């Protein structure tokens, strides 16, 4: 029977086997062909294997040709497939597979050309380094040679040379001479440019504004080289110029203990150690040098070591609270009324701990372990005294100094309990001795400052028995605050010891003054006594150490020492204006001249502060100088209408109001000063202020339209009313007029933040309560 199935020519092909045992083959689809082509050669059956279970050997698949074989295949003349990183032949033979080409598509000829080009470039690099070694100064050539000896790559060395990374910086300082620009008028006012103004011959002025206002100075009077002269100086000298060329806020504190702190071991408020370390850092950077109440080195060492000797939970929480005011990245840091503010949470914890520590009783002498317990109790008392002073500062920033002063009174009482102001017995360890003496002088300086400014008799009639050591001879006693500026590896001192010693000496003089002036408030001090204190203050100024002299001062706290001196002179000499007195050392100089000179110097210092550092960073006492000078400007505004320097005086008012506005971002009391002084200003000056200073109208609003002022920010302050002269301030205080009453009266009034809408009589009543 014949088959009815049609046959094809392929069916008639004979492969040596019966056709009935073979499967008919069909053309492969495109997908299957692509899949087959992509199969790696290593999956091909070996010659000895059977094909499709038939027992016959499959034909050998030919290797795919490659543009460049590996070195091993070229050496043994094998057919390399070019697979990377290892070809199939080297993998089968287990030999090392290396290619001279960098890509499968690169031929050996192309690889040779590439290597030739690289050799030319390398030769050019070495030639350039050789040229640098031959042509550069010996100091730079030595540095390059040392880098070569240390194994640096040639291209890296050449890149540093060409782009001025490290080597060129030895001869050229990068452009970091940033300074702030004055609002409204860009130049220093002409009336400040007096030949006898020592602050215009200072290095900070030379670096900040000498190019804009050129003052001819005899060459022999220049003790220090100018910035341009320093450009060719060694690197160490250039690093010393950083404070004169860069804002203080760009620096960081350098202390190995800061990075090893675990603040969460000392507080229950937060567990974010990174955040709290930054807060503590900012406290030391911005506030510690001015309001110093404890020894930094002992505090950080014990805090890092979890040792409650010079550190306590109370002290850490107080430091964290005031550090929150200093931390610029913390939103709402000035909201003292906000319970969600983390600074207020640290304050609440510190207050709770203070109430506990202040009531810890003295150990009984009947206790067998009395000596050790008494030693521990004294250490706890010492840190409690230190924390109490910090709490007073915090209340001052919140506008509640009436409450904060109670902590200082209690601190003095506790200091007497542990005989802090007496000489330390010889058997006491060196660190405890230093901490006690250091804290005693910090407490004395603080109570003297507050007694003078609040017109109160001092809490201490005499300074501590132990005299202060010379910071130049015993710097370890004081400790040092080291900082580093961007782009420089060197650390620089803030001269903490010289600053603290100068402030202690200053307030020792003023403590004597307060004792005579405010113990009997209705008795006027005789002229010869006032002149005697004036001469003592002038002697203090002449004996300042070199870093604090008018020639060298630069850091914010250095400038404020001189601001404080001139502010005191303004208040001290104001009641004596018009009296017949002349300086024996300067026969042509009267008390009126000295008073006017102090005002000129204060304005110069504030302008230099702004040019070099700006007003944005937290500064706990800068507000006093800004507000005092601005009140003088406001009070004499009408007399300036016909003055040739009218616009210069207005520019100073705008600058000072900008500073008050910037500080209002940091703490509460500055907000009140801003509204108070904006209310005293003329409306045209307020309008000009809004043009040049980014300030919201609500911040200047007074009266019922001021948003939630009374509910949120209650002022409990005994700070004297803004006035010029101690007698005027004392007279205001005797009538119950102080800063808090002025704020209350302005808040109750209308006026919308601009005196121009009121009469001169209403302005006078606002300034006098």
Automatic annotation (TrEMBL):
GO terms for molecular function: DNA binding; DNA-binding transcription factor activity, RNA polymerase II-specific; zinc ion binding. Residues 757-769 have a biased composition (Low complexity). Residues 1-63, 747-769 are annotated as: Disordered. One of its GO terms (biological process) is DNA-templated transcription. Keywords: Metal-binding, Nucleus. Residues 1-22, 37-49 have a biased composition (Polar residues). Residues 69-99 form the Zn(2)-C6 fungal-type domain. Coiled coil: none annotated. PANTHER family: ZN(II)2CYS6 TRANSCRIPTION FACTOR (EUROFUNG), ZN(II)2CYS6 TRANSCRIPTION FACTOR (EUROFUNG)-RELATED. This is Nitrogen assimilation transcription factor. It comes from Podospora anserina (strain S / ATCC MYA-4624 / DSM 980 / FGSC 10383) (Pleurage anserina).
């Amino acid at each position: 029977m014949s088959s009815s199935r049609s046959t094809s020519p392929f069916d008639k092909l004979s492969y040596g086997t019966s056709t009935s045992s073979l499967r008919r083959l069909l053309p492969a689809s495109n997908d299957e062909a692509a899949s087959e082509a992509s199969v790696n050669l290593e999956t091909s059956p070996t010659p000895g294997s059977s094909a499709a279970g038939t027992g016959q050997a499959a034909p050998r698949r030919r290797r795919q040709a490659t543009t460049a074989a590996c070195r091993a295949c070229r050496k043994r003349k094998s057919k390399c497939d070019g697979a990377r990183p290892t070809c199939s032949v080297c993998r089968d033979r287990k030999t090392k597979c290396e290619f001279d080409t960098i890509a499968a598509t690169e031929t050996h000829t192309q690889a040779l050309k590439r290597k030739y080009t690289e050799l030319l470039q390398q030769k050019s690099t070495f030639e350039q380094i050789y040229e640098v070694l031959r042509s550069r100064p010996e100091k730079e050539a030595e540095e390059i040679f040392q880098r070569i000896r240390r194994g640096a790559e040639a291209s890296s060395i050449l890149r540093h040379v060409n782009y001025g990374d490290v080597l060129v910086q030895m001869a050229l300082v990068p452009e970091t001479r940033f300074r702030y620009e004055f609002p409204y008028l860009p130049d220093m006012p002409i009336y400040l440019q007096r030949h006898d103004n020592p602050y215009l011959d200072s290095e900070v002025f030379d670096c900040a504004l000498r190019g804009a206002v050129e003052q001819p100075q005899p060459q022999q009077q220049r003790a220090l080289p100018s910035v341009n002269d320093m450009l060719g100086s060694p690197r160490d000298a250039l690093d010393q110029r950083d404070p004169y060329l860069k804002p203080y806020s760009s620096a960081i504190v350098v202390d190995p203990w800061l990075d090893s702190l675990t603040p969460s071991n000392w507080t229950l408020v937060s567990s974010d150690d990174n955040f709290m370390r930054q807060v503590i850092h900012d406290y030391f950077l911005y506030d510690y040098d001015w309001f110093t109440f404890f020894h930094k080195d002992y505090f950080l060492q014990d805090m890092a070591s979890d040792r409650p000797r010079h550190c306590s939970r109370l002290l850490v929480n107080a430091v964290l609270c005031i550090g929150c005011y200093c931390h610029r990245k913390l939103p709402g840091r000035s909201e003292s009324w906000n319970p969600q503010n983390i600074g207020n949470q640290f304050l609440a914890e510190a207050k709770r701990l203070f109430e506990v520590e202040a009531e810890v009783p003295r150990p009984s002498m009947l206790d067998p372990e009395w000596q050790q317990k008494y030693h521990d109790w004294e250490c706890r008392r010492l840190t409690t005294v230190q924390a109490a002073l910090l709490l007073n500062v915090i209340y001052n920033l919140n506008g509640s100094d009436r409450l904060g002063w109670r902590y200082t009174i209690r601190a003095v009482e506790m200091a007497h309990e542990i005989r802090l102001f007496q000489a330390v017995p010889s058997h006491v360890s060196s660190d405890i001795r230093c901490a006690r003496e250091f804290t005693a002088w910090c407490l004395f300086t603080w109570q003297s400052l507050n007694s003078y400014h609040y017109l109160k008799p001092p809490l201490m009639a005499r300074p501590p028995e132990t005299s202060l050591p010379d910071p130049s001879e015993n710097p370890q006693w004081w400790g040092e605050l080291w900082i580093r500026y961007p782009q420089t590896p060197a650390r620089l001192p803030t001269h903490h010891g010289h600053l603290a010693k100068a402030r202690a000496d200053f307030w020792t003089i003023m403590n004597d003054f307060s004792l005579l002036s405010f113990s009997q408030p209705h008795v006027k001090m005789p002229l010869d006594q006032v002149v005697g204190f004036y001469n003592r203050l002038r002697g203090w100024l002449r004996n300042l150490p070199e870093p604090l002299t008018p020639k060298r001062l630069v850091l914010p706290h250095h400038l404020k020492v001189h601001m404080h001196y001139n502010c005191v002179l303004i208040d001290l000499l104001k009641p004596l204006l018009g009296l017949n007195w002349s300086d024996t050392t300067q026969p042509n100089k009267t008390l009126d001249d000295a008073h006017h000179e102090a005002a000129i110097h204060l304005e110069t210092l504030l302008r230099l502060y702004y040019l070099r550092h700006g007003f944005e960073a937290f500064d706990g006492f800068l507000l006093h100088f800004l507000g005092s000078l601005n009140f003088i400007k406001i009070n004499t505004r009408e007399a300036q209408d016909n003055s040739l320097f009218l616009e210069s005086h207005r520019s100073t008012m705008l600058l000072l109001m900008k500073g008050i506005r910037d500080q209002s971002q940091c703490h509460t009391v500055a907000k009140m000063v801003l509204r108070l002084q904006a209310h005293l200003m003329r409306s045209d000056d307020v309008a000009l202020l809004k043009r040049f200073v980014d300030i919201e109208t609500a911040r200047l609003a007074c009266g019922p339209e001021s948003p939630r002022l009374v509910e949120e920010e209650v002022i409990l302050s005994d700070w004297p009313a803004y006035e010029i002269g101690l007698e005027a301030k004392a007279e205001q205080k005797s009538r119950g007029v102080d800063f808090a009453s002025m704020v209350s009266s302005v808040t109750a009034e209308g006026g919308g933040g601009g005196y121009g809408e009121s009469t001169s009589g209403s302005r006078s009543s606002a300034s006098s309560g």
